Structure to design on (154 residues):
């Protein structure tokens, strides 16, 4: 199976094109729907944290990790909503491609708005820890469930 997959990749590799890392949203409905989705996701994470605390589930390690994940997802959503607003809604940021590895970020609001935008575009620094905490929490919950199942069978 691995050899077949390798051969398929080798056969189609010459026909690949540029992989674009970002996508533009259709004006104006696309960005509004996208921002609403971020808001909905953020509010869902707030409710999850509230629910975990209300039911005192955050005492357990697995649920505590999931709570941390929800917190980082909240931060991530606030961050990307700011980026979308600056870049696509308010049009306050201009990004110019200078070369393959260089861009120029400028803003009508001044230097600090451009720096804020650039730093906020590093959203993976928030999203990756969120995903890591989610993974650790789910793994811990699965391990606890398997352990309690094994003890129940004895």
């Amino acid at each position: 199976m691995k050899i077949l997959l390798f051969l398929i990749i080798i056969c189609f590799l010459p026909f690949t094109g540029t992989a674009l890392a970002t996508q533009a949203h259709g004006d104006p409905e696309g960005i509004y729907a996208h921002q609403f989705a971020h808001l909905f996701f953020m509010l869902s994470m707030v409710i999850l944290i509230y629910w975990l605390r209300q039911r005192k589930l955050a005492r357990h390690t697995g649920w505590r990790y999931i709570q941390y994940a929800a917190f980082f997802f909240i931060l991530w959503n606030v961050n990307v909503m700011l980026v979308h607003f600056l870049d696509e809604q308010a049009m306050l940021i201009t990004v110019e491609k200078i070369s393959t590895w260089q861009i120029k970020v400028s803003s009508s609001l001044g230097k600090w708005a451009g720096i804020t935008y650039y730093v906020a575009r590093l959203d993976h620094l928030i999203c990756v820890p969120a995903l890591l905490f989610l993974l650790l929490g789910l793994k811990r919950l699965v391990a606890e469930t398997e352990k309690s199942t094994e003890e129940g069978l004895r």
Observations:
- The chain has a mean pLDDT of 87.
- Residues 23 and 31 are 11 Å apart (CA to CA).
- The beta strands are 93-99, 102-107.
